[in-house]
Amino acid sequence: MIAENIRSVEQRIQAACARAGRRRDEVTLICVTKTMPVTDLQEAYDEGQRNFGENRVQEITEKYPLLPDDIRWHMIGHLQRNKVKYLMDRVVMIHSVDSASLARTISKEAVKAGRTMDILLEVNAAGEESKFGLSYEEVLPLVREIAPLPGLHICGLMTVAPYTDDPETNREFFKKLRDLSVDIDRQSIDNVSMHTLSMGMTGDFEVAIEEGATHIRVGTAIFGKRDYTV
After folding, report:
1. Which of the residues 65, 144, 216, 217 has the least number of beta carbons within 10 Å of its own beta carbon?
2. Residue 129: what pLDDT?
3. What is the predicted pLDDT for the residue at 228?
4. Which pLDDT band holds residue 162 (cuts at 50, 70, 90)?
5. What does the DSSP assignment read for the chain?
């Protein structure tokens, strides 16, 4: 079933890219694997998937040693500073940076680990009180503040758009995020390259692709609905 679901998602990605006049290789599919067993992740891996996204540090640390080492792990959930150190040798990108204090912690731990961590700034595109992330107005000042920090590289922006039955209602948020990334890129700030837009999930990733997403985070359409009782 997972293999069939991946093929279906792939067809939808290709169709969205065609509508937007984009190449398929411009969009990275991140399989969101939170609460999913390792056997499901292995099935996705066997189908050719290499980019997996987790919301919790604990799940990354538990699953990481049980799966092939060429998987590219992405931290996509809210991140507490005291857990940053556990990600340094495991993830390729942190999508959810929303404060200078978190960025400084990532910088400190990355320098200690002898690496540079790619990060995205999380934007609360719809201004929802229930979600983490920066307002549009807070993004550029934070970029300027943390860009000089060693051990990290600002690669772009991320957002979690509102859950909706009509993906078209999220188009405006994806467009605003893309426009913001363009505006920041024009500032030509050292250590900042706005080439990554992480936006779009199971319910709206096609619209996100049409509006410029480079990374989409898809879980339910691949693995089915999660059982949070286990």
Report:
1. 65
2. 87
3. 54
4. very high
5. -HHHHHHHHHHHHHHHHHHHT--GGG-EEEEE-TT--HHHHHHHHHTT--EEEES-HHHHHHHGGGS-TT-EEEE-S---GGGGGGGTTTEEEEEEE-SHHHHHHHHHHHHHHT--EEEEEEE-TT--TTS--B-HHHHHHHHHHHTT-TTEEEEEEEE-PPP-S-GGGGHHHHHHHHHHHHHHHTT--TTEEEEEEE---TTTHHHHHHTT-SEEEE-HHHH-S--TT-
Neighbours of 132 (CB within 10 A): 15
How big is the chain by its Cα radius of gyration, in Å? Answer: 17
User: What was the pLDDT predicted at 225?
Assistant: 84
Whether residue 180 contacts residue 157, with contact meaning beta carbons closer than 8 Å, is answered with yes
- The rounded Cα 82 to chain-centroid distance in angstroms is 20
pTM of this prediction? Answer: 0.96
Q: How many CB atoms lie within 10 A of CB 4?
A: 10
Residue 69 has pLDDT above 70, yes or no: yes
Contacts of 143 (CB under 8 A, 6+ apart): 121, 154, 184, 187, 189, 192
**Given this model, what pLDDT does residue 130 score?**
86
pLDDT in tens, 49-58: 999 999 999 9
